[in-house]
Fold this protein.
Amino acid sequence: MKKLLLIALILTTSFHLRAQVTTPQSSPACKLEQKVGLTDISIQYSRPGVKGRTVFGDLVPYDKLWRTGANKNTIITFSDDVTFGNQTVKAGSYALFTKPGKSLWEVYLYSDTENWGTPQKWDESKVAAIIKAKASPMSFNVESFSFDINNITNSSATLEIFWEKTYVAIPFEVPTDTKVLASINEALAGSPKAEDYFAASVYYYQEGKDIKQAKEWIDKSMAMSSEPAFWQLRQQSLIYAKAGDKDGAIALAKKSMEEAKAAGNDDYVKMNMDSLKEWGAM
C-alpha cells in the first residue's frame, strides 16, 4: 500500500512540474508572404490592437522611433535586390522601424534584426534605407495593426501599413525585367521549346516591348504546337492586333472563340466576342 501511495505521489508531482498554462498573445504573431514578379517578399510582425486607446500621438508618440508593431522587431525579407522608395536595397532581411508623424512618416530598413523593440544604441551604419511616406487618414477604424502588399504589377507593388485610422503606403520595385530578359536570352539561345517562345512573346506584349519580335516568337510557338489551345490562340490574336494585323487578329479570335465554346469556357468566349466587337468584326 505504501508503495502504491509513493507511486501516486511521484506521478502527481511530475504532472505538476510539467503542467504549464497557455494563453493567447495580446499581440499575435503574423507572417505575410507575397511574390511580386519573380521576387519573394515576407514580413514577420506582431499585431497589437487599438483596444479603445488613442494610438498615434499617444500610445505611439509622434516623431519617435517605433518598432512598427509589437514584441520583437518587424522583419521584412527580400529575395532579390529591390528599389524601396527610391533607394536600392540589397536582398536579405531587415528590421523595419518607423518614426510616425501627423502627416509624414519616416521608414527605416535596419540590417540588425535581433532587437526586442528598438535598438538600445542606434547605429547609422546599419541603416540600409530611409524613406519618407505620406500618412493619410481613413474613414474607418482598423482594430489590429496590419501590413499588406497591394497594387501588384510584374515589376512593382506598394507596402501598406494600416492601424487605427491611419494609412501609409511605400512603393517599391523589383528586378523582374532584368531576370526575365536573362531567362529569355538563355532559353532561346539553347534549345527552346514552344512554351519558351510563347512565354517570351506574351511577356513582350504585356510589357510593351518590341511587338514585332513578340509576333515572331508566338508564330514560332504555334508552329511547334500540334493543337494550340483556345487560350494560346487568344494571346496570339491580341499580339496580332497590337502589331497592326487586324485581319489576322480577327481570324485567330474567331478560332479561339469556337474552341472555347467547345471547351465550355464562357469567359474566353466573352473575351473574344468583346475583342471582335472592338475590332469591328461583329
